[in-house]
Write a structure and sequence with these properties.
The chain is of the alpha+beta class and 430 residues long. The protein has two domains: 262 residues, 3-Layer(bba) Sandwich (FAD/NAD(P)-binding domain); 155 residues, no CATH class. It is built from 14 helices and 20 strands. Strands 12-16-15-14-17-18 form a six-stranded antiparallel β-barrel. The longest helix has 22 residues. The protein is elongated. It starts with 13 loop residues before the first strand and ends with a helix. The N terminus is likely disordered. It binds flavin-adenine dinucleotide (FAD).
């Protein structure tokens, strides 16, 4: 996958410079080359698509098969702008594109769409073959530094700096997570200096640190108790439901699973509610969500089972035999109620159906699956050209949208790449 680091022999004018070789930049390059333009993809890393390859490790979720109306709703306050890209390149086009590259897709039980082998590497390999065949050139280890006084792009290379003038440029520099894969958000001040407005980058689809509220008589402490984190960090809460009411009155209520970490929580169900939690933490300093440990049991049934005479059996084995509660789920009850609280049947039953977990901070942005914030849409035309710099286009996660996991991130990155390419081609062809 590593591409040769060939410096351009002369700083001759290129038609289009695509800076950033993630999915958004590669898609822009493909479309621009197809419209007959000479394209060079620059990237700071030794090879392109590193985050895309990472995304393939847990099963590459390319897009989602749900109807368009619900699909666009996933982009929240930016759904109108993302919908305007998806009309050119939406879920169906993502699947057709993969097929053209020789990669069949399938729809999983949750409606998510994956490559048949779940992997990113074969898709990226085929994509690069197609791009090279279309004449796209690659310049790796070229870190974009902004512009010189004449308006040419400045690149830092291992052996010095070069300037490259381009007739049009597509920036697709990614968000600000997983910096070691290239997406470090270092472009933010460069664009601000050029008069292009940005919204602060923030973690999205991220984990949180918790603070367990003290049992009566206990002290509030950050994180889980040492006992809980030493025994249960890394373990999943399976078949649970989370409920959280956001500040705006938006209610999140969904079943799924999440994972306890050393200091808090992460995993798919937490990522899904993370935007609401993040906003609440920002304004109130903390947010408390409720976990239903037995979503298939009514509150009445849980109370009846908890109250069922247990004879000489311990409470732990009573909960295990009557309700199947053990391991991390039983430990969370102890964590919330303390030993004494566990003896109160009413409180215990209520906590089984709604165990409060208080989060106090997002995990650092670099650990997040994606980032919110980025180039503000009021700085861009509808085809993603910067008002402050005609001929400069932006695409991908570096734009100010966010979405949950489920294939919505890659779909929007790819479709914004298509839209920016349309804009750049239109700009160059007048
Ligand atoms: C663990 C993980 C799993 C994921 N799984 C999925 C999934 O299954 N489905 C899904 O839809 N999404 C998933 N995502 C999110 C998805 O990978 C990203 O949203 C997507 O890669 C964003 O594409 P992009 O092209 O905008 O940016 P990126 O893929 O981040 O690419 C940006 C590129 O710009 C380059 N660059 C940055 N700054 C400079 C500079 N100054 N000069 C030159 N080059 C620069 C970087 O090196 C990088 O190659 C996952 C993310 C993670 C971290």
């Amino acid at each position: 996958m590593t591409l040769p680091s060939h410096a351009l022999s002369s700083p001759a004018m290129v038609d289009v410079a695509v800076i950033g070789g993630g999915p958004a930049g590669l898609m822009a390059a493909q479309r621009l080359a197809q419209s007959g333009l000479q394209v060079t993809v620059y990237d700071a890393m030794p090879s392109v698509g590193r985050k895309f390859l990472l995304a393939g490790r847990g099963g590459l979720n390319l897009t989602h098969s749900e109807p368009m109306a619900s699909f666009v709703g996933r982009y929240g306050s930016q759904q109108a702008v993302v919908a305007s890209w998806l009309q050119y390149f939406g879920a169906a086009e993502v699947q057709a594109w993969a097929k053209e590259l020789g990669v069949e897709t399938f729809v999983g039980t949750s409606g998510r769409v994956f490559p048949a082998d779940m992997k990113a590497a074969p898709l990226l390999r085929a994509w690069l073959v197609t791009l090279r065949a279309a004449g796209v050139r690659f310049a790796m280890r070229h870190r974009w530094l902004g512009w010189d006084e004449a308006g040419a792009m400045r690149f830092a290379m291992p052996d010095g700096e070069i300037q490259v003038p381009a007739r049009a440029t597509v920036l697709a520099l990614g968000g600000g997570s997983w910096a070691r894969l290239g997406s470090d958000g270092a472009w933010v001040p460069l664009l601000q200096q050029a008069g292009i407005a940005t919204v602060a980058l923030e973690p999205a689809n991220c984990g949180f640190d918790v603070r367990m509220l003290p049992a009566p008589g206990g002290e509030t402490q950050p994180g889980w108790s040492p006992f809980f984190s030493s025994k249960f960090a890394g373990q999943p809460f399976k078949s649970v439901a989370i409920r959280f009411e956001g500040e705006s009155g938006a209610v999140f209520a969904r079943r799924g699973e999440f994972v306890a970490t050393d200091t808090g929580v992460e995993g798919s169900l937490v990522y899904a509610v993370s935007a609401l939690l993040r906003e609440a933490v920002k304004t109130q300093g903390s947010a408390t969500f409720l976990v239903d440990l037995l979503p298939d049991h009514s509150a009445e049934r849980v109370l009846a089972e908890v109250r069922h005479p247990r004879g000489s059996r311990s409470l732990a084995s009573h909960l295990k035999s009557r309700l199947g509660l053990e391991g991390i789920k039983a430990a969370l009850l102890f964590e919330v109620l303390g030993k004494d609280g566990m003896q109160d049947a009413q409180r215990l039953a209520a906590t089984i159906k709604a165990a409060p977990i208080t989060v106090t901070a997002t995990r650092p942005m670099d650990e997040a699956i994606s980032t919110a914030g980025g180039v503000a849409f009021n700085a861009l035309s509808h085809d993603l050209m910067c008002h402050a710099r005609p001929g400069l286009f932006c695409a991908g996660e570096m734009l100010d949208w966010e979405a949950p996991t489920g294939g919505y991130l890659l779909t929007a990155a790819l479709s914004s790449g298509v839209r920016a390419a349309q804009g750049a081609a239109h700009f160059l062809k007048g």
